[in-house]
Design a protein that fits this description.
Blueprint (H helix, E strand, L loop, with lengths): L1 E7 L2 E8 L4 E9 L5 H11 L9 E6 L4 E5 L8 H9 L6 E7 L4 E7 L1 H10 L4 E4 H11 L8 E7 L2 E8 L2 E9 L3 H14 L9 E5 L6 H9 L3 E3 L7 E2 L12 H9 L2
Parallel strand pairs: 1-4, 3-14, 4-8, 9-12, 12-13
Antiparallel strand pairs: 1-2, 2-3, 5-7, 6-7, 9-10, 10-11
Helix pairs in contact: 1-3, 4-7, 5-6
């Protein structure tokens, strides 16, 4: 069994998966408060039933806002901090990391709030580490034949969205953005479409994560995009029967990360 930890500034989830079968047998999801996140995260990890189970390996996914996607040909290890500071500002207390997205020709340069890094790594010392956007893009690549080459992918979390926009199979932009009201979401997506010359009426939108089809957020998407579909994982993982009472697309981001982040 492998334990997959998806950790961000305002959320923490744990997924237990039988790796060889790609079968998910356990899941926990928590929201972290606006303040006192470190104390809450430590309390959750010390009391989590899944964290106390016997597992063979652990993968940690840091789901954080500050990242820069750099084409391989421009990447140099000594400019990571400069690139991040140029785009996201100078935050010397954060932890910087880099990972290569093999087969995509991209390096992902990202930063992690030091409290988040310390909270997770002190609980799980020997673990593979990834960034959420890296695993999202890898998942999309692995399932590219399922979707239109021009497509918007959205992974919904409580209070923020991971997005990836493709045109003719080419990645245009990937983003982590917060939202409080539905209009925040539509403004960001319509602005992105305009910047890249995409017609919202022609671009399909694939959504998964914590969004309901009958919610005002889903209705907001339907106002501007003619094709909005939910993604149930496309058979890349098997969910135990205990999850059958929930919409399949709820767990696609977390379970995709668990499968991909070995």
């Amino acid at each position: 069994m492998r334990l997959s930890v998806d950790a961000g500034p305002y959320h923490l989830s744990l997924t237990l998966i039988l790796a060889a079968e790609r079968k998910v047998v356990g899941f926990e999801s928590y929201n972290l408060p606006q303040s006192g996140q470190e104390e809450e995260a430590l309390a959750i990890l010390s009391e989590s039933p899944l964290a106390e189970m016997n597992y063979g390996s652990v993968s940690i996914t840091f789901n954080t806002e500050e990242f820069v996607l750099m084409p391989d040909r421009f990447h140099h290890a000594d400019i990571t901090d400069d690139c991040l500071s140029l785009v996201h500002g100078d935050l010397p207390t954060n932890v910087s990391a880099t990972e290569q997205l093999q087969d995509l020709g991209i390096h992902n340069l990202y930063r992690i709030p030091i409290w988040l890094f310390q909270s997770i790594t002190q609980r799980f010392h020997l673990a593979n580490r990834h960034h959420g956007v890296s695993l999202m893009l890898t998942t999309i690549r692995n399932r590219s034949e399922e979707w239109s080459p021009t497509c918007i992918h959205l992974w919904f979390y409580t209070g923020h969205v991971l997005s990836a926009v493709y045109q003719d199979g080419r990645l245009l932009i990937s983003n982590w953005f917060p939202y409080e009201i539905p209009e925040d979401l539509s403004y960001t997506l319509l602005n992105t479409a305009e910047q890249f010359g995409l017609n919202p009426e022609d671009v399909p939108v694939m959504v998964s994560g914590f969004i309901d089809r009958d919610s005002i957020i889903f209705e907001e998407l339907m106002k501007y995009f003619l094709v909005v579909e939910t993604d149930n994982g496309g058979g890349t993982f098997i969910a135990d029967d205990i999850f059958s009472g929930y919409p399949d697309h709820y767990f696609t981001p977390a379970f995709s990360i668990a499968v991909c982040g070995s």
